[in-house]
Design goal:
The complex is a heterodimer of chains A (579) and B (53). With 579 residues, chain A is mostly helical. Chain A contains 27 helices and no strands. Chain B has 53 residues and is an all-alpha fold. Mean pLDDT of chain B is 73; it is low at 37-53. Classes of the chains: A mainly alpha (579), B mainly alpha (53).
Chain lengths: 579, 53
């Protein structure tokens, strides 16, 4: 079936450049001009796909997915989950890879320049500010979590959790053991600095010798650790193995038993779409950046699909085979159900599992190191993908050298991350996670899907996706990218705005009977309005409240966004003057 | 673990493992290719046969 390639259709070929090309508008392979960033290329195709998969595989694959699946209909959750992957995840991956490779042809390896090339409006580059802002702010708090995993590797090897309760250890570690909203956890801060230094050092080595090498080492180790832990966990037998109270298969059954009634609940569909959205790391600008180092006719279709499915492999197979089965074996299914009731597995992963590994005798320190090592590799391959667009922006648009750019990235993440370390008990970390790690991604993805299909144009977009493709992209995806994917993301966006307390059906029923909309405190509007909490900044004794910390964090994030936009403005003005 | 859970697990793991392995195998056996196959800024005249051009 003809899917529309410009070369075969003269009209479409002209559409590739619908306005006259000046010298500066020509792709690099025509002008021959290259910046330092353009000389960087992926060394191998497997390295590229592993780096992209590493970008997508994160802590959520092992901690969030199993809890979400168990709480959202079990095996039935996988039906909307896979539908969302095909109708929203995969098309969005292709869109981001195509935007990235297209921008790379013009010497842009970060979102502002890429979006500037998608149409004539000068405002498009400011849409790309999201691709800088999100990566910077997410890296700041994400590297802090990543540093916990590094610390837990060390403490697992030292046998700390044999003598200390991991719950108390964690509270001490992050500074939540008291009632203060502020914390100065020196050990946590030290590990944070080490993690940032490691990220900066790898990034400063360049694409092939840094990011790609880290993915080629980290991803196979992650898979090996995951497979070993899954095999050991699933073969535990009550009565035979020390401390085992229940078969781990009961935990597996908890995740996979299909509750088909959930399929009629819009909330389950939104949860599945949200999980697909966040697990693929779309809407950040990091995929665009990695893809921008591809040549004009190098494949994006197969690479994107392979990286996406590899993330699904890690999430669906390994993600469901470790945390909940092992926890079920040692603490029983009812305790696991209680621990995952909120749809998150963080408590199980950091506070329960370290103790349970003690039952594995001499293998315990190694098992703990493998579990947190797996999480560390999942984390660092993602944080590197957040750093690369920042470095690329500084190099391409502001002419900063790579080492200085890496230092600037490290300093910025240290400052912003230090803020979340200091105010972790007050909720700053959670605010970063919500506004930049969740909401900003949805906003950016919605905007980019609309710009790609309706401003850049679906015909040019389809040509960009299929040019040089090493697999046949079904023509069915062309209307999907144009209509279905933006609609899917739009639904996730609206749901995030007005998410209700409880089930959506009950919320609509309440609205219909005149009781109003039961707005959840976790929705965007609920957070802005401090629903269910005290919005005052100072309490009766004149002490700082959590609301003040939350609002101050939001103002800081707005200021960071404006600073990023200002940098983009300055960069373009400098370029305009130099021409 | 119920039979329905086993069926769901086997079906989903089967699909995911097959798709990931198949696509990664294709990636491994196909080189990345020349990054500048055409000299002009326009798509090549022959289009892309795999996608019907």
């Amino acid at each position: 079936m003809t899917c529309g390639i410009g070369g075969a259709n003269p009209n479409l070929a002209r559409m590739s450049h619908p306005w006259p090309l000046s010298e500066r508008d020509r792709p690099l392979h025509v002008t021959g001009w290259m910046s330092a960033g353009d000389r960087q290329r992926w060394a191998t195709r497997a390295g590229l796909v592993l780096a992209m998969a590493g970008n997508a595989v994160g802590l959520g694959n092992f901690l969030r997915f199993p809890a979400q699946a168990a709480q959202s209909g079990g095996g039935a959750f996988l039906i909307p989950y896979l539908v969302s992957f095909v109708l929203m995840g995969l098309p969005l991956l292709w869109v981001e890879w195509a935007i990235g490779r297209h921008g790379g042809q013009y010497g842009h390896h970060s979102a502002p320049g890429m979006f500037d090339r998608l149409g004539r409006s000068p405002l498009l580059k400011y849409l790309g500010v999201f691709g800088i802002f999100t990566n910077l702010t997410v890296a700041a708090y994400y590297c802090y979590v990543e540093s916990w995993t590094l610390a837990y590797v060390v403490h697992s090897l030292l046998g700390t959790f044999r003598s200390e309760d991991p719950r108390l250890f964690f509270a001490e570690y992050v500074g939540t053991s008291g009632t203060s909203l502020f914390a100065l956890p020196l050990q946590a801060f030290a590990f944070f600095v080490v993690t940032l230094a490691l990220n900066g050092w790898i990034l400063s080595r360049g694409l092939a010798r840094g990011v790609e090498l880290a993915a080629r080492v980290g991803m196979p180790l992650l898979l090996a650790f995951g497979i070993l832990l899954a095999i050991r966990g699933l073969t535990l037998v009550p009565g035979r193995d020390q401390g085992v109270v229940q078969s781990p298969l009961e935990g597996l059954g908890f995740i996979w038993h299909p509750d088909l009634t959930g399929l009629t609940d819009p909330g389950i569909w939104l949860a599945a779409a949200g999980q697909i959205f966040f697990t693929l790391s779309v809407g950040m600008g990091s995929i665009h950046c990695y893809a921008s180092y591809l040549g004009r006719r190098q494949d994006v279709a197969l690479n994107a699909a392979a990286a996406g499915w590899m993330n699904e492999l890690v999430e669906v197979v390994l993600g469901s085979a470790i945390l909940i089965p092992i926890a079920t074996a040692y603490v029983g299914l009812s305790a696991v159900q209680a621990a995952t009731a909120g749809g998150g597995g963080f408590g199980l992963g950091f506070m329960t599992l370290p103790t349970l590994f003690d039952n594995w005798g001499a293998f315990a320190p190694l098992a703990g190191a493998m579990w947190f090592g797996l999480l560390f590799f999942a984390g660092i391959t993602s944080s590197l993908a957040m750093g690369q667009p920042i470095l690329a922006f500084l190099e391409d648009e502001l002419g900063v050298g790579r080492r200085r750019a890496a230092l600037a990235f490290g300093a910025a993440t240290l400052l912003l991350g230090g803020f979340t370390v200091w105010l972790y008990p007050g909720g700053a970390h959670g605010e970063f996670d919500f506004w930049t790690g969740t909401f900003a991604l949805v906003v950016f993805a919605l905007a980019e899907s609309l710009v790609f299909a309706w401003v850049f144009g679906i015909d040019r977009g389809w040509e960009e996706i299929t040019r040089g493709a090493d697999m046949r992209v079904p023509a069915f995806f062309k209307p999907v990218i144009r209509f279905v994917t933006p609609a899917f993301i739009g639904a996730v966006f609206v749901a995030a705005l007005v998410e209700p307390v409880g089930r959506w059906g009950a919320a609509f029923a309440a609205l219909g009977t005149g009781q109003g909309w039961p707005l959840s405190p976790d929705s965007v509007l609920g957070k802005l309005l401090h629903v269910g909490g005290d919005a005052r900044w100072l309490d009766a004794q004149g002490r700082v409240t959590r609301a003040l910390v939350e609002d101050a964090t939001r103002l800081l994030l707005v200021a960071v966004f404006l600073a990023c936009a200002l940098l983009v403005h300055v960069a373009w003005r400098r370029k305009a003057r130099s021409r | 673990m119920t039979r329905a859970a086993w069926l769901m697990l086997a079906g989903t793991w089967g699909v995911v493992v097959f798709c990931a392995a198949r696509l990664f195998w294709l990636v491994l056996r196909t080189p990345l290719g020349d990054d500048d196959a055409t000299a002009s800024g326009e798509p090549s005249p022959e289009g892309d046969s795999r996608n019907g051009g």
